[in-house]
Structures are given as structure tokens and as C-alpha cells.
Amino acid sequence: MKRLLLGAGIVLGSLLSVTSLPSLADDNPLKGNIRVVIGSKSTGGDTYQAASIVAEALSKKLDMNFKVDAVGETAAFKALERGQRGNTIMIFHDQSYLGYLYGQNGYEDIFATYKIGPTIAINPGNAFLVPKKSPYNTLEDVIDAAGNGKTVRVAIQPGGVSEIGYSAIKNAVKLKYPGKEDNVVALNTGSQADKNQQLFDGLADVINGSVQANEQYTRLPADDQKAMRFIWLTAKSTTLADAPEAGMGELNRAAMLKLAEPQVKVPLADGNNFAFDKEFFFLYNKDIDPKIVAFLDKSLGQIFADGAIQEEQKKAFFTPDFLPSAQAEAHLKAKMEEYKQVIDALHH
Fewer CB within 10 Å, N- or C-terminus of the chain? Predict the structure, then answer.
């Protein structure tokens, strides 16, 4: 991945030669055990997986105990506010700023309230699916159906990575069929299991899901109530190009690329197509010691330069995605502004 290599290269250059450093132990400003809170309560979800891979690598590298604690976003942000000493850090994904853009309770502007740390991984599997017997064979069919007066019900979890894809679909309808965008209707649910159930019960025409969680259902015969198929992967094609060739289950990388931009077009007002990479990154207390930020950037720079962590991430179907803190903040701010425009376009 070009950005990964660029990010790692910059870190390596700033350290002159990280591989020549004898040890990180001598200049380690961290003391004691490190609690890594995540914005999810699930220990089986992608946030926990992504955080655990990095926490284990840091534990081994620094001979310290980094323990992942799945407390959910509200408790995680509160814990972070008390984490000035650096013994509590957070790992979450784009929902941390999307929740703020959507006005969800408990979300603040992360760039004003917290210190942004490095990016670590992308889940390239964020997706939208329909029942296997659906008349909608493509996302374009969904857009055209809404434009021609059909109500299209989309099951999402509000205020996050589910809703930004939903907003992009709705905005595409508005661009192609002005005034018809309200035919795309959100069914606000909770977990992935809740969204799946909406489809099983025939209440949703489209659901948000992921390759990891939903690929198994795409193998079922069409007459099975749980059978579904992918119509869109939101990730950038360049991100998917870095996924393992075998893909996941019966969905290989070549098939995934046919489900993403530019093969699947979700137009934006500027003539480009919408794409969204679900990206995981560190957050720190606003007043954290800059030495800790620099130290963890350096530590992760070495870990990614070693190369073993990338293999672990790919086994779990993550795309390696390391950027040190300063670059990560600039990159994520740009993403927030891009998706703010999509959200704002639906209210004008």
C-alpha cells in the first residue's frame, strides 16, 4: 500500500535508522500497564481485532502489558478524558468523527477534544447487501428504483460507518433524480445481527454489513430466507487491491474489485465517485505528554518496518495502514471534511 510505505518511510527517515536503535526501553516514558479502550463492546468485532493485533505487537516490542478493554464509545471517551498520564489510550475508527457530524449524543469534535494518534489498519470489507432474491442486481438498480418512486429501506446503525454509505446512496439519488432522495429510507438498528434480522424478516431492502460478517450468507441458495448478496463494497479500489488475493470465503479479491469504485459508481456533486475506507487509529487525552506520542509513533514505526504485523493484519482481513500521528491527523481531518460535504448536501 503506497500510503503505508510512505508513512513508514517518513517515520524511518525521521529516526535516521530505526533498525539501528538498540532498544526502546531506555527512553520509554510509559510506566505500568496500559489500558487500550475501544469504541465497541464486542470482543468479536473488527475494532477489537484491529486493536488486539497492535496491542500484542506493542506488548512484545516494549515488554509491557497493553490490555484491550471493550467498553463502548461513551465509556471509552470518558476514560480517555481521565487519561492524561498516558496509561489509558483509545483505538477507534471513523465513527469517532462521523458521530459528531451526524449529531449523535456523546460525540464531540475529536480534533478539538483529543489528541489524534497514528492510523493502524483499514477494514476493506465494509459493504451493502440485498436479499439474494432481490430485484436489485446492482447499486445502480437501487438508485434508479428510488428515482422512479419506489421506497427503498436501508438498515443501518445511525451515526457512523453504516450511515455515511447510506447518505452517499441518498445523495446519489438526489443528484440523478432531484427531489426523489426521500424514497431512500433508513431503518435505524443496532448491531450487525439486528441489521441481518431486518433482511431475514423482509423489513429491509438493503442492509449495511461487511465481508467478514456477511460473506457466509452469500453462499446460501436463493430460496433460503437468510441468503444475501453483495452489491457494493465502499472501500477504495486501491485499498482492496492490497487485500489478500484469496479474499475471504468464496469472495476473492477479483470479485471484490468488481463491487467497488470505479466499477460501482456512487456519484458526488464534484463528478467524483464516493468511496469510504473504514480506518482504525489511536486517540489520546488532549494533554498527554508529547514524549509519549512521539515514543509510540517511533515504536509503531519499528513494528511496521519489521513487517510481521502486516501479515497478522492480512490474516484477519485488514489492510495495513500506518501513518504517524501528525500525518494521521491531517489525513483524518481531510476525510472528515470530505464526508461533511456529503452529509451537508442532503440538508440543502
Answer: C
**CB-based contact 153:187 (threshold 8 Å):** yes
Give the sheet arrangement for strand 228-233, strand by strand. 184-188, 152-156, 206-210, 126-131, 228-233
Residue 293 cell numbers, joined: 506520542
Count of other CB atoms within 10 angstroms of residue 133: 12
Q: Per residue in 69-97, pLDDT tens?
A: 999 999 999 999 998 888 999 999 999 99
Domain count, the chain: 2
Q: What is the pLDDT of residues 1-34, one digit of tens each?
A: 445 444 433 343 343 334 444 456 668 999 899 9
Task: Please give the residue range of the domain that contains residue 94.
Answer: 2-124+277-345
Query: How many C-beta neighbours within 10 Å does residue 161 have?
Result: 22
Where do we find the cell 469517532? 96
Q: Which of 29, 27, 57 is nearest to 292 (CA)?
A: 29
d(C-alpha 326, C-alpha 336), whole Å: 16
- Same domain? For 196 and 215 the reply is yes
Quote the CA–CA distance of 273 and 179 in Å, as a whole number.
20
Q: Name the helix (H) or strand (E) containing 91.
A: strand 88-93
CA 155 to chain centroid, in Å, comes to: 18
Same domain, 41 and 81: yes
Nearest alpha carbon to residue 38 among 77, 65, 94, 64: 77
Pairing state of beta strands 278-285 and 88-93?
antiparallel
CB 247 within 8 A of CB 87: no
